[in-house]
Design a protein that fits this description.
single chain, about 240 residues, mainly alpha, about 75% helix, globular, ABC2_TM, Motility-assoc_ABC_perm_GldF, ABC-2 type transport system permease protein, cell membrane
Length: about 240
Amino acid sequence: MFAILSKEFNSYLNSLIGYIVIGVFLVATGLFMWVFPDSSVLDYGYADLQSVFGLAPWLFLFLIPAITMRTFAEERKGGTMELLLTKPVSDAQLLLGKYFACLLLALFALLPTLLYYVSVYQLGDPVGNIDSAAVAGSYLGLVFLAAVFVAMGVFASSLTENQIVAFILAVFLCYMVYTGFDLLASIDAWGTASYYIAQLGISYHYSSISKGLIDSRDVLYFLSVITVMLLATKLVLESRKW
């Protein structure tokens, strides 16, 4: 698994896709954080990173599928999938190796944003006047969000040999699970059930954990979605034996 992880991660760093994803993420968050007047922390007057944490899920919604679209689709199209499956590696090891490689690249994009926290910490009046617990919770929420999106992207890639189709499927799946349940819950026809429908979406749990309160129910939700998507991907890989 670690050999596959290393190979996949190095392949991203040896191509433009890894640098493009990280660059686009940092440029976009930097512009909203420091430049655009409607969201700039310098004009806003409050020492927080909400402009970053509010924008990051929508950036991940497109950037993570761009990372994951090649995981299995490229192997199928290139005819190397069968060769890879004949190696002394289980389907689970193959899946987890590719999954963690994509997740690691997504987390690498988050690392430089820690400089934003240090900057706002120093700019606060007095110095350190920032809700560090909320920031930590928001970062944890982004880690879980990236992990879920990567799992969905890998699943979408396992369904087709076309990378564009895999990208579109992943974006649609991530969007529907992230905010689709909120839109569904907003329909008046559900009554009191709308509250429980909203809880099925990622947005509800991401907003909850971003407040700095780490609830075991939110953590369990993210882990459950990741597990379900990885098991679904494993099932797709095993379908060749049927």
